[in-house]
Design a protein that fits this description.
With 169 residues, this protein is of the alpha+beta class. The protein contains seven helices and five strands. Helix 2 crosses helix 4, helix 4 crosses helix 6 and helix 6 packs across helix 7.
Length: 169
């Protein structure tokens, strides 16, 4: 597995970039917003990566932050959501907004993404809400000991949203 790629940005295309690392160019698929944040051709860049191996395809997907990578991994785990759809979602929704939308059942925000309809949004929320809660319980022991929540009047949805954000880092 390739955890990250650090090198010189050589090419920017519609949906991918080429990063030169010691004379070897890596074609990395990246979201539109990720490409904007990456920099200019010739700049030194670092992208966190997801290395996908399929029967007929080997692809590298790149992200500016670990939170984006984690959101991508969660999305491709949902049935019916592929890597390209996940990249489109990353172009339209920040990871923190995504976590809040899933936890608060905000179907309207998810359906604003091109190619995501009401049924897909419901499926994403249904499948990921449990995963976020499971990860939340694991992180509760580690992170919540160090961070005390000051407001005791915070409602349940806000508590779940905070936990979801902590899962994404």
């Amino acid at each position: 597995m390739i955890a990250h790629i650090k090198g010189t940005l050589e090419t920017k295309a519609a949906d991918y970039v080429v990063i030169d690392v010691g004379g070897l160019g890596y074609k990395v698929y990246i979201s539109a917003t990720g490409m904007e944040k990456l920099g200019n051709i010739g700049d030194k860049v670092k992208v966190y990566t997801y290395y996908r191996v399929r029967e007929d395809d080997i692809s590298i997907f790149g992200f500016n932050t670990n939170e984006e990578l984690r959101m991508f991994e969660l999305l491709i785990g949902v049935s019916g959501v592929g890597a390209k759809s996940a990249l489109v979602m990353l172009s339209c929704i920040e990871p923190s907004e995504f976590a809040i939308a899933v936890i608060s059942n905000n179907i309207k925000l998810l359906t604003q993404v091109p190619g995501i309809g009401t049924k897909s949004a419901q499926r994403i929320i249904l499948e990921l809400k449990d995963k976020l809660k499971a990860e939340q319980s694991e992180l509760d022991e580690e992170k919540l000991e160090n961070t005390k929540l000051k407001s005791s009047k915070t409602n349940e949805n806000v508590q779940e949203a905070i936990s979801g954000l902590m899962v994404l880092g």
